[in-house]
Amino acid sequence: MKTLNIINMESIRIDISKTTNFLSPNEIDGYQEIVNTHHKILAKKTGAGNDFLGWLDLHGWTCPKT
Predict the structure, then answer these.
(1) pTM above 0.85, yes or no
(2) Which candidate, 20, 4, 21, 2, places its Cα nearest to that of 12?
(3) Strand boundaries in the chain, DSSP class E
């Protein structure tokens, strides 16, 4: 099981054990650079559609009591 550590977020664990039937370990490892690139774009909020990334900050938000 691979673990991706996300800055300012909880760790995300992805079970990839069932992917070996159609993806080689090298193919899976080859996605790491792509994932890192997209993570940086999301974290910096610089990509296309960056005005729709409010969900990235929801983990620390709570609804005020009324």
Answers:
(1) no
(2) 4
(3) 2-4, 12-14
